[in-house]
Amino acid sequence: MIARRVLALVAALTLTLPLVACAASAGGYSGARAMSHVRRLVNMGSRASGTEGNGAAANYITAHVERYGWEVERDCFAYSGVNLCNLIAKRGEGPIVLVGTHYDTRPVADRDANDRTQPVPGANDGASGVAVLLELARTLDAKATAGSQIWLVFFDGEDSGDLGGWEWAVGSGHLAQRLMNEPENRIEYSIIVDMVGDEDQALYYEWSSSLWLSEELWALAGRLGYEDVFVPSHKHHIIDDHTPFLKVGIPSVLLIDFDYPFWHTTEDTTQRVASKSLLRVGHVLKTWLEDEPLAARAIAR
Ligand SMILES: [Zn+2]
Questions:
Q1: Tens of pLDDT, residues 255-264
Q2: Domains, the chain, with CATH or none
Q3: Hey, which of 17, 201, 217, 247 has its CA 20 to 30 A from 232?
């Protein structure tokens, strides 16, 4: 992911965050379990597309979601000489709601102050989104798929943009294009999460995201007591896995905390990620998917 207009990264975020959601779990959703996924993924080393670690992460994700009762489609394709695989976990029947994140990590820490040859650990940028979705896969109850279908999509090839001629968001671009030819797989809207684990969490509306989706999600977060973390005003403009869906007319929203000084550095480690941050985002998404009627959500289309 990259900011179109990278605002000067402030060295230290001066927001004082209140202690909301300090409980270890909410509605069965466990921040600690999500955090353990982050650790396991980071221990695999680089998960850059085409690497051994990427394959290990794909197997890890697949094994977990299958254990939780989801059907998994491996959607593999060649890009720039590399085999990329999106993992699409499906449950339910009817109109489709897509919740996505990327599981690949950036092959080099090209924003690192000291060493730009190493890969990023990708604890926040890569693992945090996967962890949030895996814990959703475990805990979503039957209400979430009463009358609709949920796809939890783990994208490959998001984070090699501008390296060796690669584009950003390759996996999601592939899926968005593919779905244009599959009228039976009409996506009502997509929700993308990326870099949501920062301990100093602050989530703003992203400029290109569908405004009605941002407003409704942030309003729900406020009702859950997270109004000081989900700030209902615009900040960054980001190219990420929501972008290809917006381009083909599918309403989409990106949940990202882009004020993260360790972005694309070797310091994007598990120490920077907090279970309470994963829990907040997971709790909002779980409540949204289980309690908000699809008709109301799709009405603005
Ligand atoms: Zn990234």
A1: 999 999 999 9
A2: 2-6+15-292 (3.40.630.10)
A3: 247
